[in-house]
Amino acid sequence: MKNSPIGIFDSGIGGLTVAHALKEQMPNESIIYFGDTKHLPYGEKSEESIVNFSTKISKFLVNQNCKAIVIACNSASSVAFDVVKKEAKNISVFNVIDPVIKEVVKVCADYNIGVIGTKATIKSNVYEHKIIKLCNSSKVSSLATPLLAPMIEEGFINEDISHTVIANYLSNKKLANIDHLILACTHYPLIHQEIKDYYNGKVTVIDSANIVAKYIAKQLEEDDLLNTRELTEHHFYVSNYTESFEKSARFFFQEEIQLKEINPH
Ligand code: DGL
Fold first, then answer.
1. Average pLDDT, stretch 48-74?
2. Nearest residue CA, atom 6 of ligand 1?
3. Sorting pLDDT into bands at 50, 70 and 90, what band is 265?
4. Structural domain contains residue 195
5. Domain boundary residue, one of 183, 208, 233
6. Which domain holds residue 229?
7. Which member of 62, 74, 210, 263 has the greatest number of CB atoms within 10 A?
8. Looking at 66, 108, 135, 185, which residue is catalytic?
9. What is the pLDDT of residues 230-247, one digit of tens each?
10. Is 185 a catalytic residue?
C-alpha cells in the first residue's frame, strides 16, 4: 500500500496546481492524475452531475490501486466529498476545503472571511457551514466568480484584462469588509499575486494548494503511508484529449507533461 500512487482528480487541468504542490511536498510519491475535461466546467454543473462524475472517477482511481484520493477540484470537494469517501471506503480521501478551513480558524477569532469560487462551490455554502461550525465568531461572505477560471485557462493573467476582471469582482459590496480571502478554486493560485496586489496588504489572501499539500503529507506520514522507494511514476489522464489542454497542463503543473485520454465514464 505504501508504495502505491496517490490518485488526484479534478474537472480538468486546473487541479494540476494541487498535483504540483503535492509533488513539491512529497517528491517520492507517484501520482495518478485524472482531469475530467470531457465534462468541465464542473462549476456550472448540477450537484447531481458532479456527484455522478466524481463517483465514477473515484472507482477508476481505486481500481488503479491508489492508496489515497485527493479531490483537487473545489466544486467536487464541495458537493461530492461524502459520496467519494463512501465509495473509496478502504483508502483515505482528501478534499481541498477542510485543510484550508482548519488553517484559517487555527486562531478562532471574529474574522470576516471572504470566499471566491465557482457557482457550484459558492452555491453549496460549504465554506460557511464548516467555518461557522469550528468558529462561530467568524463571518463568511461568499461570491461566485465564474469568469476567473476560463480567463486563467486562456492565459489572461498579469495584464489589463485580468486586472479589470479581478477588480470588478473584488469590489463587489459582499466582499467590502473582509480581512481574509480564501481562493476556493483550482485555478486561482495563478492569480494569487494579482489578488494580493489588488488588496495591497489589507487582506490576507489564502491560497489553498500549498496548505492542502502540507496537510496531506502530514496525514500520510501519521498513517505510515509514505512511499519508501525513490522511484516515482506519474500518469496524467484526461477524459478528452486536445493539444490545447496539453499546452495548458504545462502551465498549471509548471513542467512538461503528457496527457493520455482514458474514459472511466
Ligand atoms: N476545478 C474547478 C474548481 O476548483 C474549476 C473549474 C471548473 O469549473 O470545472 O472548482
1. 97
2. 41
3. low
4. yes
5. 208
6. 6-95+210-261
7. 74
8. 185
9. 788 999 999 999 999 998
10. yes
Least confident of 135-149, 167-181, 223-237: 223-237
From the CB of 17, is ligand 1 less than 6 Å away?
no
Domain for residue 1, yes or no? no
Count of domains for the chain: 2
248 — phi, psi (to 5°)?
-65, -30
Any ligand 1 atom below 6 A from CB of 252: no
pLDDT in tens, 75-115: 999 999 999 999 898 899 999 999 999 999 988 889 999 99
Instruction: Verify that 123 and 200 share a domain, yes or no.
Output: yes
* Long-range CB pairs of 235-238, under 8 A, 24+ apart, other chains included: 235/5, 235/31, 235/32, 235/33, 235/260, 236/16, 236/33, 236/35, 236/260, 237/32, 237/33, 237/34, 237/35, 237/261, 237/262, 238/12, 238/13, 238/34, 238/35, 238/36, 238/37, 238/38, 238/262
Rg (CA), the chain: 18
Residue 2 reports pLDDT greater than 70: yes
The answer to whether residue 78 is domain-embedded is yes
The ligand 1 atom at the shortest distance from the C-alpha of residue 41 is: 9
User: 106 and 191 in one domain?
Assistant: yes
Section 159-174 average pLDDT: 98
Is 32 within 8 Å of 58 (Cβ atoms)?
no
What pTM did the predictor assign? 0.96
**What is the CATH number for 161?**
3.40.50.1860
Of 208, 223, 250, the last residue of a domain is 208
Does any ligand 1 atom lie closer than 6 A to the CB of residue 74?
Answer: yes
Look at residues 39, 38, 136, 119 and name the one whose alpha carbon lies nearest to residue 79.
119
> What is the predicted pLDDT for the residue at 151?
96
pLDDT for residue 107:
82
Indicate if 135 belongs to the active site: no
Ligand 1 contacts CB of residue 185 (under 6 A): yes
